[in-house]
Amino acid sequence: MMAFVIRRLLYAIPTLFGVCLIIFTLFNLVGGDPAYQMLGKHATETQILELRRELGLDKSKVEQFFDYLKSVATLDFGRSYTTKQQITDMIWRGMPASLSLAIPAFIVEILLGLAIALLVSFYRGTFFDRAVVVLCVMGMSVSALAYILFGQYVFAYWLGLFPISGYDTDILYRFKYIALPAIIWVVVSLGINVRVFRTFVLDEVNQDYVRTARAKGQSEKKILFHHVLKNALIPVLTYVVIQIPVLITGSFLLENFFGIPGLGSITIDAIHNSDFPVIKAMTTIETLLFMVFALATDLLYSVVDPRVRMR
Amino acid sequence: MIRLPSQSKSLWQDAWRRIRRDRLALWALGVIVLYSLVALCSKFGLLASTWDAEVGGPYASPSFENFKTIFGTDIFGRSVLYKVIHGTRVAMSVGLMTSLIAIPIGVTLGAFGGYFGGKVDDVIVWFYTTLSSIPGIMLLIAIAYILGKGLFSVYIALGITSWVSLARLIRGEFMKHKSREYVIAAEAIGAGHRIRIFRHILPNVLHIVIINMSLQFQIAIKSEVILSYLGLGVQGQPSWGVMIDDAKLELARGVWWQLTAATFAMFFVILAFNILGDALRDAFDPKLRKG
To answer: Do A153 and B127 touch (CB under 8 A)?
Structure first.
């Protein structure tokens, strides 16, 4: 086990280096001069020189790369160009807002998806099963933006069941604002979840142990909810854990539409304001989180399913 | 007595026979062909070339008096129908162009990694693991932001971000195929690496590219909409994403037709690609059908 952990950690090092190299190449080599982009066409020569020095762009590319590696190691990405705040502080402040939408929505999304998947697996091959799969495919074919726009228009604006947008620092009052975006989140992701979870369950249904259980006279219900569910939870777990980093940015679009001041909104604002340092920092942090959780998934997986360690 | 078929069918003939029997898949194929034709007609100026002309008052609701206003008009009195048609062209071109970028990269790297193994494989796997460690949406946003606004950046950003899954699949297949008898036989008669990779193995794994393409189109069309909404996508011409973005301000005034038209246009083509993708996977890989 320990050998596996160490090997997996060592594997992460070249990937981390590669990620830094790609992000650096994108932002510092390919991207032209961000000073021009940020200041616009009418900037004077001195303004540009000053901004270049402020961003450390007057140094050589090699020095810039080491600066970047240092900022990754210390998680200090300097200041936002538009708000002048420390980017790390902005992220810490945005995270609770993102999470208070993401966590409840994500939990409901997964549990509901799994429940429906088990139900349709129980009735596999019937009309009900096929109807649900068709509905899932149809649901997946609608743009997420359309769900958000129609949802906001119908339930908040037209029927007035929810506030149109907003946010409250008080956690109890906040739920009033979080409810509708969370429901839309669940609806958007339900189609794909049910389909994926259904395949996970059906993959297990054809295994030998199911036949054995059936042969010894176990009821179909017990087989599905006891034997199959336990094994199907392994791929479900991977699928769930790997999505956790995405939760931290939350849904860009939902946060933007419902005025929730989370990381998604910060990123979208940064794009609109051409806030180069913030976009770069967000890309880096998202990637780091993603890698940490991918690592956690692998380790968790090897605990749950010892076969993995052999590879 | 066992009767052998007089002529054995190739994988492709067999798959085509299966698809032809699947009525739903044929409908899906028909929808995709229709969208492609609309896109081509628009491209060559036969359809909706006057999308920026005024055809009525601002925000005229849909009416059947004139086919141009069948889906109503937008804020400048332009025909929503024409904008949808032009958007079809944009969407299909994004799907096609990103496929043209992603497929050669994915196939070549996957093939080399799987075939040569060793150091070459290590470098290729390292490269795509690294690339896929950056969350897709952030990488897409970063590339589109850096290359500047416009359709061209959308092509490149989507092309660069979407070849990894294809490369993974192709690599796996090449690893399986490289030690098969037919490849060893090819080596025995003096076929070099290049011939073995491209002439012998590649045709046997090409169906993966076809299946992947239906997924590629869906991702491309959906991503174009999101990038355009973020202001990083199409500029100066209508696309479904731009139309949906406009709808954000229109809905409060009760203007629902532009959003509805764009959403449905997108819904049908993505649904068709979804259905066709599933059918193709079943047709090419009967082993997967048992589920």
So the answer is: no
